[in-house]
Write a structure and sequence with these properties.
The structure holds 2 protein chains of 2 kinds. Chain A is an alpha/beta fold. Chain A is about 25% helix and about 25% strand. Chain A contains 12 helices and 18 strands. In chain A, the strands form 3 sheets. In chain A, strands 1, 2, 3, 4, 5, 16, 17 and 18 form an 8-stranded mixed β-sheet that branches. In chain B, strands 21, 22, 23, 24, 25, 34, 35, 36 and 39 form a 9-stranded mixed β-sheet that branches. In chain B, β26 and β27 form a beta hairpin. Chain B is elongated and about 130 Å long. The termini of chain B are far apart. Classes of the chains: A alpha/beta, B alpha/beta. Chains A and B meet through α4, α6 and α7 of A and α2 of B.
Chain lengths: ~400, ~900
Amino acid sequence: MKVLWAAALAALSLGAAPDDTAVAIKGARVIPVSGPEIDGATILIRGGRIEAVGKDLEIPWDARVIDGAKKVVVPGFVEVHTTRGTDRPNERIASVPFVSTFDSINPVDPFYEDALRQGITTLCVMPGNDTMIGGQGCVVRPVGVTTESMMIVRNAAMKISLRPRPGVSRMAHLAALRKELHEASEALKDKKGEPDPRREPMSRLLKGLLPAFVYCPTASDVHRALELADAYKLKVKLVLGRDGWKAAGEIAKKGVEVILDPELEYWESDEEKHEEVRRFGGDAIAKAGLKFALQTDGMPYGTSYLWYQAATAVRNGLSRAEALRAATLSPAEILGLGARIGSIDKGKDANLAVLTGDPLDAQTWVETVLVEGKVVYERSKDEKLKRVLEVKK
Amino acid sequence: MKRWMPGLLLLASLATAQEARGPLIVVRAGRIHTVSGATIDHGLILLRDGRILDVLPGGEIPRGATLIEADNEVVIPGLVDAHSPLSEPGRDADETIAPEVRAIDGYDFYASNWRQLSNGITAAYLSPGSKRLLSGQGAVVKTAGRDPDARTLAPRLGLRITLGEQSKFPPAIYTPPIPASADKPLLPAKRQYPASRMGEFAALRRAGVKQGPLFVQAHNEDDLVKAVMYADEVGAKLVLIDAEEAPRVSDLLVERKIPVLFNAAYAPGRRDATDGSRPSLEATGSLEGAVALSKAGVRFALVPPDDPQMRDLLFLAAAAVRQGLSEKEALAAVTLAPAEILGVGDRVGSISKGRDADLVFLAAEPFAPGAAVRRVMINGEFVFERKEADVQTYRSIRDSAGKARDLLAIKGGRVLSVTQGVVPDGLIFVEGGKISYVGRGRPLPAGAKTIDATGLTVVPGFVDFGSHLGFHLDRTDAGLRRARGSGAPSTLAVAPSSLIAAEDPAYRAVAAAGVTSILLAPESSGVCSVVKLAGGKAVIARDVAAMKFTAQGGTAGYQALKDALAAGRKYHDDWEAFERARREPTSARDPITGTWKGALENPEQQQKVDFIAELKLDAATMKVTGTVQAPAAGGTPEPVEGTFDQGDLKLEQAKPAKVEFSMKVQGPDHLKGTWSSAVRKGTLECRREPLPVASRPEAREPRKDDAMEPYRKLFAKEIPAIVVARDLPAIENAAKAFRGDHALDMIIAGADDAAAAGAVAFGKGASLALGPDFLKDRRGAKINSAEALASQGVPVAFASGGSTAASQLPLLAAYAVRNGLEPFDALKALTVNPARMLKLDGRLGAVERGRDADLVLFTGDPFAPSSRVKMVIVDGKVVYEAP
């Protein structure tokens, strides 16, 4: 698989030809996520990869030097599940495994620009939560003028939603989903049938070649998702709803990776006391030892604020390291790209965000963003941001 | 690869299996109803790892065991709700045959299920639906548990089939091809079976059901028989659901050993879902069906009605006991019987070795009035514990012994006289329809007819403070059934007693429940009558017994009441003035005020002297002032003071000498009596001077208006006003208009928040009438309006608000007692309170000398849900006797 990706990358990477440009970020506080923070460190980048990280490194003569003094460098944030950046995320027919966000991603959507502005360097654009089998999603970098040039992994995962459409009961929804999976697995056994390209994604799903992102709007749906995974040997990642943390024990038994609901803090009514109770489930998930990622999809107060999600998690008692990992390395691993992105380590893609201060501080700006070694965003050149911030006279 | 490692997982589960010997827990209980076996007093239940290890009749607590003390509690198995709404009720799939639908998919494994747990329900059957012919597979779950596995008893259980009208005419199904092409054209939506019973069974046969058990919901006799035939045909086991008419086919069910999940269709404390203004108490006839099934030997479980709010399964069973089911069988009907019928009897439903430790801890015996669920345990862990403050422990009607002929004697019963305490082993004499003696140990008069009430409890006949029984004029069975939904006229200008069908058979049924008097009331305003249910028909006790009004909030609402009352007052005053003038043609005065002339006799001197008195009576204080004089004896007018009391006039003259006069009214304007001074005394007689003609008021008769006539009684304070006031502003207006402006007697009815209304009403001197929905949930606690009001001292009466629902009034009060109302307050609310409110307390509401002999003989405490009405006596005649 990795070989496949590497081949794809070779064809689709930023520049057409492999380049050898060197970049050095000098004297910054580096938060590698995979290890302890390093003060006054230098990051050397060559050919789009991180060559070295450490103190007192010699800066090559040909490197473009970015002054990191008083700056903080973090790995580019990874948005593990978003349904934005396309025209609309859901088809109206309940089962459309053959569609792909590849066809709907809009490279000039301001969403990608905003993502860079917030230090996000990798996104998994998935179909929405309203379709039972919603189609396939792609992992992209928010850079490029064509969908192809943005692509990191085309058709990286299948989206399945356990949320019934309005007017349909959970029971009927589940029955319909099982029926689809059953028919597809029967078709898989039937070798004589003519190959149907529209069946192909379902075959890949059932063969375990394509992971399934299963949206579980309630904690109870987790049980059903895990049951389906067992019954059809699916490779599942759970996109949890707000109260998904209640099923943490069950998920832990299966060691499945999860994506938390964007609403980390929420209010739940206590039936017994007739009171509204504030809930945060991140701690239960962390305590259960689950691998989890944060997402911002559909957040009411703005998109792409992964740093804010991490800060919210910390405010509610998660450790800083856990929270930062959940916005960088963990989502990268959930996307199967842990070896390439998500942390500042030698050999990894140079996806970096240079910040003016601590990543969890609301007063921090994203100063510079590098994607695969290339500077793709500089605040000093962000005309749009300037216009927004300009004081009207 | 981030997938889990099966090997490791296996090791981990092996490890947990090794550690599975958890700590030993011992429950020491005051009483254990094992259901499957004997009832054990002061027994021990040994638990480990969520299972019952053993049940022992006492003994040593093993060393190292964790002790749960429940010495004052009664432990029963967790209740099994055999047809619960926990799985998305009413949201069936479109397909008429949908065997792939699983009810378990609709169950929320992490829900608190607080309502179920607080009623002691620990396990429930989930139905996949009830609107399609074959709506899917059922499931049996627990209502609490750590994770989905712990909550699942049977993930897939049988097929759920619905026969009858509900499942007919399913929607058409439209499946568009993607994309449409010449080969795969767009086709119209597919119609589905069934539209008739033929279609029903054709569709079922096409579905090719091979395996059971089949859970078939069917209501009437023919569908039930058809279900049995169909199950035979496919060779599947059958369980019937709802099956209201099962008693009619009980032979068939016994023969084939077919169990029934019998719908009790009874929801205490709830109003009808289809019509919020009516209580749903009416359809309790089906509980009698349960008794019939039991007698016939059909295996059955009791299923609560389809109401997500109503889950008081234990009370449901108690209501069945009241209808005649044995206590043992009733308890089994909500525990072991449903568990066995659902195939999980080896895990839940009884307290015995190897079963799951699902226990319910009650404050009292399961069918005692105060059998509140205190704690609930599932898999050996407490999942519900009621806060101590919410638990109302039952105190029986304890009271100091009561203080206190010739036709009827009722002896040996425990008499709850209401006004005079409790008379154990009491004796009641009834003469001429009235009670002539209540007490103990008087010799029985010779020739008296005797009713032996030994072991029974005698209470006054109950009064329903609002019903519209009998307003329907159609007396056929069909008419009666219709009438359950029909209401009273909205407004009535004439007494309802003139509109009802007095010989309506429904009266007999109501009387049989112990309700002997009913206030017949229109829906929103007008005249109310009191009828008594004597000898199977309605006898009018008071034609115009109350006036009903509806109050609204706001300035306009007040103005409307004010205008109505002002008009009424004027009508009353006009007539009052006219009547007074006609009653006293010579004077419009009180009996004393005026000039009296007569003679004073001194027996010593044997002579009469003239006597003149000028007297004035203060009507408010009944004090008399004025002067007396004996002119012939040379006396001058001397001031006197005195009192006038019920025809007795007493006067006292201070000077020149102290003289006392004592006279009696002999007739209009005629006084006779004696006088006495320190030295003499003698007789005295005088007559009042007529008023001068010019000062007489004009006695012109006002125009009579039938619609206004009741106002005369209202303002004369002979009858009270019943005011329907929903919210606080309306209650405030009512209090202002009725109490504040006119000081009328007022009873608030229909208040949404009766407990809050009580505070207002009490301050203004009003009483309250409560309907079946007196129980409210607020901030997690059940607020029992009846209890809240009674403890504030607000007089409360119960109103059924329905028609035949009147027969459920005692059960309504029992429900209030179960939820915390003091039994004595409940008894008053059914008897003396409504009697007083209606100013009929000289006749109704108590077992007391002089009152009507309306008596109800219960087999036990009137509010023990399990006690039954043994006999009902109205006006000294037996109108009902339990067979």
